[in-house]
Amino acid sequence: MDISLLLTSTLTLAGGIPLTLLLTFASLLAGLVLAVPLAFMRASSCKWLSLPVLAYTYVLRGTPLLVQLFIIYYGLGQISAIRSSVLWVLLRDPFWCCLLAFSLNGAAYTTEIFRGGIQAVSNGMIEAAQAVGMSPLQIKRRIIFPIAFRSVLPSYANEVISLVKATSLASTVTLLEITGLSRKLVSETFAPYEIFIAAGVLYLGLTFLLTGFFHLLETRLNGAPRAEARPHRVDLQQVAHE
Amino acid sequence: MKRHLTCALAAFLLAAGLAHAEERTAITIASEGASPPWDYIDTNGALVGFDIDVGKELCTRMKLQCTFVAQDWDGIIPGLLVKKYDAIMAGMSITEKRKKSIAFSVPYAVAPNQIVMRRGLGLPASDIDAKLNLTDIDAAKKETIEKLRESLKGKTLGVLRSSNSEAVVRELFGDIAEVRSYDSQENIKLDLTSERIDGGLGDRLVWKQFLDTPEGKAAEFFGPQLSGGTWGPGVGVGLRKEDADLAEAFDKAIETSVKDGALGRISQKWFGVDISPQPAK
């Protein structure tokens, strides 16, 4: 293995980090905005609300992301009605195609994760909230969502990490993020070993930072704080549970 | 008892493997399978095309059994180096840069490259039958390139990743046009028809076949036919450097099949023109 090539290519590939992060966070944000209302619909007892969302998550989770990206990028581009519509301004650009594919796919997984969290919120808490006179929207906002969010945080962190790695698929539609740059570099040097190791190290670094962040967030949002620090809150919590 | 048997079997297989490497009765040849008519996958899933037919012809002459496999273009040289197969026949030009990693046979085809642009971009008329050899660029050639640069300013060009066309486009037009690299020529065509890119540079014969299809009507050749420079002397068989015996066998087979016209006939069949190299005088 050529160590100096490994080092220089790591530096070159680092130039792809901004695009990888932009793709990750933009699709995370869009996915989250979509997923929260969808998760409440999915958890709803009304069939007309939950079934369409089930169909959406079923299809998006049941097909590979690469296939979805190809359908959006190459597939939609073949339809002349779409090419002559306003949508084409965005779909023409590989970046927006990726963002659309990653957001829709991520939203499907996030919806199912949040649905689990919402359904796990105990009835007692909801009844207590109703008893003090909160409206259904208030209950969702103040009780269900915060509790659900905290309980699904570890699974959501998993989803975020998957998404970081999924952005590497953007290289198949000409974007030069970390993987795209590595493939370009491999074609110049014919040394896939060093260069893909360098790319792997960069992804590992990104995942390390994200895992750390979510770990911090989990401790911060921990419902049962250290007893000696805030004893009175523990008492309140116990009351609420009983 | 069982252990002894396994051991004996392993030793036998190892010996058989070594003997096999010494005689060489069969080889595996990799092709890209996505650049018709050079090499592509037909509706039955079989690899066919000019490269495959030439390969079969050469193998008969070398008295070797050949198996063809499809391999994506950007991994085709690394795959050869790690011995996934023994030779590459995929319309690959013999270039100085590739020669640093692998060896080549003598050329079995000489094929020009050309730019293709979408119609309706308002580009000036150009002589598409003119030829421009990029080796030893003089003042006249420089002027032709400068004219091309003016026309292509601000355009988006698609090229095959790890191809010479990519290197040439980045070198000549990289500063004035946006260059996008694709996995296969097929995807460049798709993005050209959907107007994501304005044009591209690639093998003239591959373009020719595309331009004759209904989808290809939306595009046309632009500028002179390009050769030389990065493209080198022509298309050859890619081989590992240590397999000198194989290179020698390929060279001999190519030379005889050029002389007796077999290569020319295969070229006529797939391209409608003879692109086999001129026999040495």
Automatic annotation (TrEMBL), chain A:
Belongs to the binding-protein-dependent transport system permease family. HisMQ subfamily. Keywords: Cell inner membrane, Cell membrane, Membrane, Transmembrane, Transmembrane helix, Transport. SUPFAM superfamilies: MetI-like (SSF161098). It is found in: Cell inner membrane; Cell membrane. The chain crosses the membrane at residues 51-74, 86-104, 195-217. This is ABC transporter permease. GO terms for biological process: amino acid transport. InterPro entries: AA_ABC_transptr_permease_3TM, ArtM/GltK/GlnP/TcyL/YhdX-like, MetI-like, MetI-like_sf. GO terms for molecular function: transmembrane transporter activity. It is a multi-pass membrane protein. Pfam families: BPD_transp_1. The lineage of its organism: Bacteria, Pseudomonadati, Pseudomonadota, Alphaproteobacteria, Hyphomicrobiales. The keyword Membrane applies.
Automatic annotation (TrEMBL), chain B:
Residues 1-21 form the signal peptide. The keyword Transmembrane helix does not apply. InterPro entries: Solute-binding_3/MltF_N. This is ABC transporter substrate-binding protein. The keyword Signal applies. It comes from the Bacteria. Coiled coil: none annotated. It comes from Mesorhizobium hawassense. Pfam families: SBP_bac_3 (PF00497). Keywords: Signal. Residues 26-274 form the Solute-binding protein family 3/N-terminal domain. PANTHER family: ARGININE-BINDING EXTRACELLULAR PROTEIN ARTP, MEMBRANE-BOUND LYTIC MUREIN TRANSGLYCOSYLASE F.
